[in-house]
Structure formats: structure tokens, C-alpha cells
Amino acid sequence: MTVVITIDGPSGAGKGTLCQLLAKKLGFHLLDSGALYRLTALAAENQGIDFDDSEGLAQVAASLDVVFEPAEGGVRVMLAGKDVSTTIRQEHVGMNASKVAACQPVRDALLRRQRGFAEAPGLVADGRDMGTTVFTEAPVKVFLTASSEERAKRRVAQLEQAGREADYDQILADIELRDKQDRERESSPLRPADDAVILDSTNMTIDEVLSAVMNLVKQLP
Ligand code: DC
């Protein structure tokens, strides 16, 4: 049987780091569903598709030529043979991803691809609607959150560590706008599944978050 662990929550709550650690610890596959929305936004931008053209966007999503390769310290993302691992992490790509993600035909086009990641022995699925839409039968569902101020602080630290400039007020405003877009859209809005465990990581270290989730996994029959 393939065990699926879903980790949903707003941007910057620490889902990415948590999911990588969990997948490594358990020897499970990893689905970074946000990357698929980011790739759709980037490919649409490259192909000059308008963000209001839902059929055009859905076609881009359905025909994404993407390969996720294991790389040192994470995953290398190849789009049409080109390494876009860094490009898709840019703030404007995240904002565009949030826009294309509101388009139901795009979500439909990505659904089967996401479910295809569930292979033995198990999957850790990172996103916004993993527990509510994509893997509704998952035995462990977590909704990881943190205050928007804490999430902005973590993003600033991450950017500064990478030697990039970071404006706290701008980042906080972007986070709040993206939360609003993701929470208020009609298609699979960001919300905890009814059977999700809600974890607020505002005052928790990543190790504390990891052990809280591992405790849930250990309770599995
Ligand atoms: O997790 P992320 O920041 O890489 O996600 C980028 C955007 O993609 C996010 O603002 C909303 C969208 N998204 C989504 O709608 N559903 C998912 N399962 C994952 C991401």
C-alpha cells in the first residue's frame, strides 16, 4: 500500500523544508505541487499566453515537459531541457503561479500528474489542496501555518542567506496578498481538510515540527 502524507498551508510556513526532511527520513517520494503551478506560470509567460486565457493555460499545464531530478541539497527542476530550479523560486513567478492556480482547467490538467506521484513505499505531498482535493484518502494530513510576520521574517532570512536583497515590508505585503488570493479563490481554496491536524509553527523550530509530524506517522496502523 502507498502511504500518502499531505502537508498543506500558506506560503512560507516551512512546508518545503519539512517535506524534504520527512521524505528523506521515511524514504518516501516527494511531490512539490507548488512547483507545478510555478512551472505552468513560467511556461505560459515564455510562450506569451495571457493569464486570462484559461484554455491556453490549461494546455500549457497539460503539456508541461518537466523532469524532477535528485540533486545535491534538493531537487533540480528541468523545463523543456532547461534547468529552471532557481527561476521558478523568484517572487514574481510565485505571484503568477497563484494567479494561474485560480484557474479550474489548470487545476484539472495537473490533477492526474500529481496523483501519479503516489508510488510505493509512500509520498509526502506539499501544497494547498493536497488533503482537500488531490489525496482526500491520505491517512495523515497536516495543515502547517505560521503568522504572516513570522513567515516574512523567515523569507527575509532565506534571501539574505542567499546574498540577495530583501525588503521586509514588501515581502510581508506579497505574502498577505498571495494568502488572500489562495484563500478566496473558488477552485480548491487554501483551507485545512476537515480531518487535518493543524500545526502553528510560529514559535516552533523545524525539528519540533518534524517530530510532531513523525508522531502522527508513528500512530499509523
Ligand atoms: O507552494 P508555492 O509557493 O510554491 O506555490 C505557488 C502557488 O501555487 C501558490 O501561491 C498557490 C499555488 N498552489 C496551489 O494553488 N495549489 C497547490 N497544491 C500548490 C500551489
Q: How would you characterize this protein structure?
A:
- The chain is an alpha/beta fold.
- The chain has one domain (3-216): Rossmann fold (3-Layer(aba) Sandwich), CATH 3.40.50.
- 48% of the residues lie in helices and 18% in strands.
- It has helices at residues 15-26, 33-46, 54-62, 91-100, 104-115, 130-134, 148-161, 168-184, 206-218, and strands at 3-8, 29-32, 66-71, 74-79, 82-83, 122-127, 140-145, 197-200.
- The strands form 2 sheets. The chain has a 5-stranded parallel β-sheet with strand order 2-6-1-7-8.
- Strand 3 and strand 4 (74-79) form a beta hairpin.
- Helix 1 packs across helix 9 (206-218), helix 2 crosses helix 4 (91-100) and helix 7 packs across helix 8 (168-184).
- The longest helix is centred in the last third of the chain and has 17 residues, at 168-184.
- The radius of gyration is 17 Å and the shape is globular.
- 38% of the residues are buried.
- The mean pLDDT is 96.
- The structure holds 2'-deoxycytidine-5'-monophosphate.
- The site of 2'-deoxycytidine-5'-monophosphate has 14 residues, from helix 2, helix 4 and helix 8.
